[in-house]
Amino acid sequence: xxxxxxxxxxxxxxxxxxxxxxxxxxxxxxxxxxxxxxxxxxxxxxxxxxxxxxxxxxxxxxxxxxxxxxxxxxxxxxxxxxxxxxxxxxxxxxxxxxxxxxxxxxxxxxxxxxxxxxxxxxxxxxxxxxxxxxxxxxxxxxxxxxxxxxxxxxxxxxxxxxxxxxxxxxxxxxxxxxxxxxxxxxxxxxxxxxxxxxxxxxxxxxxxxxxxxxxxxxxxxxxxxxxxxxxxxxxxxxxxxxxxxxxxxxxxxxxxxxxxxxxxxxxxxxxxxxxxxxxxxxxxxxxxxxxxxxxxxxxxxxxxxxxxxxxxxxxxxxxxxxxxxxxxxxxxxxxxxxxxxxxxxxxxxxxxxxxxxxxxxxxxxxxxxxxxxxxxxxxxxxxxxxxxxxxxxxxxxxxxxxxxxxxxxxxxxxxxxxxxxxxxxxxxxxxx
Length: 432
Known about the structure:
Largest sheet: 9 strands, mixed
Strand content: 5-15%
Radius of gyration: 26 Å
Number of strands: 9
Number of domains: 2
CATH architecture of the largest domain: 3-Layer(aba) Sandwich
Distance between the termini: 76 Å
Helix content: 40-55%
C-alpha cells in the first residue's frame, strides 16, 4: 500500500506522463499509429487530457495533420467544453515531449492506472452486493460481467465477438447472398472461373500471386483491383515499383481497350480518346486508391494499410510486391524477414476482415514457361504457410494462352488451371 506522500508523487508522475503522451501524439501520424489501438480518451486522468486526446483521434481518423493550429481548430469546432481549451494550453502540450521511444510503455502505464481505479470502483460495488442480503445476486452478477466487458472495451479496446453473434452474422450473410443476384460470397475477382473456385476474395484471406519477372503479375493484380473497385468495394493498391500515373494508365487502358502505346504518343482518334476519358471518369468515381509513396519498412506498410482501412473502409489491399518491402529486423535472414511480412499481412486481413493480395517473385527453378509449384516461390516457406490462396501466372510453351494456376485454395479445390489470353497492349487478361 502507498502512503500519502507516495500517492502524491505518483499523481504528479501520472500528470507529467499524460502531458508527454499528448505531446508525442502531436509529433506525427506515425506516433499515433504506434499506439492507436491502445489509446482511448478514458485513460487520460485530467478532464482536458480526455478532450484533447479525443480531438487528436478525430483529426487522425480524418487523415489530417496533428499540430498546434489544426488541433486548436478541431477543439473549437467541437464546441463546449472542448472550445474552452486555449491556444496556450495546446502550444504547451506540443513542447512536452521527452523520450518518444517510450511512448508504448507510457500508454500502458496510463491504461493500468485507469484500470486500477475502475477495478477499485467495481470492487466496492461487489463488496456492497456481498453485504446486502436483499440484492438478487444472479441479476447483479450479470450486471458486473457487463461492466467488466465494457471496461475492457474502454481501456484496452477489447471487442470480443461472441459465438452467437458470429453464427447470426453467418445466417445474415447467407440470406443476403440468396436474396441478391450475387453468385459469390466475397469480392469479385473479375474472372468467373476463379470466382467459381474461390467464391471471390473473402474476408480474412491472404492471397499470394506469383509469376516470373515480366510475367504479367502486376497487370493481373491491376485487373483484380479494378474489378473490386467497380463493384464498389474500396480497394487500396500499394505499388512499390510503379508510379500512381503508370497504374492509372494501365487501368484506363484495360477498361477502355485503347492501346497504351497510342496513349503514350498521342496516337488516338476522337472515338478512342472519348473511350479513354470515360474510363478515367469511371476510375475516378470508383473507390480505388493507388498509393505509390515510399514504403520505408514493414511498420510503415502496416501503418498505411490500417490508416486507409479506418478512413475509407478498405475491403481489398494489393501489395506489389512482397519481397521489395524492407524489414527492420536485420538480425534475421531474408527468408525469415519475408515470412514476417506475410504473417503481418495475414494478421491485418484477419483483424480488419479484409482480403490482402500479395505479389511475389519466383526463384530460378521457374522460368515463366514451366508449371510452377509452391516451393518455387522466392523465400517461400512462410508465404506458403500463411497464404489461404496461392495463384501462379505463367505462359506454357505448349499452350496458345497464359495459364492461371490455383495451387492452394484453403477450403476449396486446388491444382486447377484457368486459361487466360493476355492483351499485352491493353494490360488486359481475357478468360478463355
